[in-house]
Write a structure and sequence with these properties.
With 316 residues, the protein is α/β, with parallel strands linked by helices. It contains 9 helices and 15 strands.
Length: 316
């Protein structure tokens, strides 16, 4: 399974369409550098926030002398500082995301772009937005482990560097086959002890361990979360032409094979299982208060990402 061509992923029209999106965080942790995000830190910013009494050692330049003259008490003027929002992108590079799919009757299919195509475009879109407003962005692709493709860095001039690195990513793993293990990947990511920020996981969230294990692992992360679920119309409703009769299905990640007789009852049970998976992911997003976007990888990516942005902005 080869990487995707740069021109196929990031054509000029796609890159140009990113300018109308903007990623904004409501609050970010202390410890960042100047950018367009509001920080919990109080210092020498430009937007007034509050007063507090003077304490020994405070900067005298922050003293409000008008209050001192009126009340004889020393207060400091506090301003809201602006910092960068660390954005950590985790695109799914498991082998199944690179498996081509097909439509139509057997023998006359038109291959669809692999699911990774939509995932990497989404990652590029969010990276471009964040870099353009001076946020720091890192890329941590995962399958059954996590890699560091790009360490967190900032600057709009790095957009093409991100595009080249993303286009060179493929379904590779340190431990062999690029199977899916979201819980293990999140544990590895957490062990990096990165500054608290926005973790964007871009995946179909199909994991052999099941959705409960996935959501428990997501619930343990200390970062804000944004979930981009990569979907296809046939995920819940398999093609009735292709999925009929006696079939031998092969797992694109493990290589395990299963002989099945596809019946109406089997398809009904499959839909029930898929609905439970969808409900589990949606319920977690509601409980956690995080963004969840179902991204149809066969439709224009930017148009769908735009639904996350109210008036061109996403409030994390």
């Amino acid at each position: 399974m080869a990487t995707l061509a740069f021109e196929e992923l990031f054509d000029p029209h796609f890159m140009e369409s990113l300018h109308r999106l903007r990623l904004v965080a409501g609050r970010v942790p202390m410890g960042g550098r100047f950018a367009e995000q509001r920080s919990k830190a109080m210092g020498h910013g430009i937007e007034f926030r509050d007063f507090r009494p003077y304490s020994p050692g405070d900067d005298l330049r922050a003293v409000d002398w008008n209050i001192y003259r009126r009340l004889g008490r020393v207060f400091l003027r506090l301003f809201e500082e602006m910092e960068d929002l660390p954005v950590y992108l985790m695109p799914d590079l498991s082998a199944s995301s690179y498996t081509p799919e097909a439509t139509g009757a057997p023998g006359s299919e038109t291959p669809l772009a692999p699911r990774a195509h939509g995932g990497l475009r989404a990652a590029m879109a969010l990276a471009t937005i964040a870099l353009g407003q001076h946020d720091s962005v890192g890329v941590f692709p995962f399958s059954n482990d996590v890699r560091v493709a790009i360490r967190p860095q900032s600057g709009a001039g790095r957009v093409m560097t991100f595009a080249k690195v993303l286009s060179n990513l493929g379904p590779k793993s340190e431990g062999g086959a690029a199977t899916t293990d979201i819980a293990h990947s999140l544990r590895e990511f957490g062990s990096m002890n990165l500054r608290s920020g926005l973790l964007v996981m871009i995946s179909d969230f199909f994991d052999p361990a099941g959705i409960e294990v996935v959501t428990k692992a997501l619930g343990r992360t200390r970062h804000k979360l944004m979930l981009v679920q990569l979907v296809r119309k046939g995920d819940r409703e398999p093609d009735p032409v292709r999925m009929a009769g006696d079939l031998r299905l092969v797992d694109s990640e493990s290589g395990d094979a299963q002989n099945l007789s596809v019946t109406a009852d089997l398809l009904s049970r499959y839909r029930e299982a898929y609905d439970a998976f969808e409900t589990g992911l949606a319920d977690f997003a509601t409980r956690r208060g995080c963004g969840l976007l179902q991204l149809d990888v066969d439709e224009p990516i930017v148009d769908q990402l735009a639904t996350l942005f109210e008036g061109g902005r996403y409030q994390a």
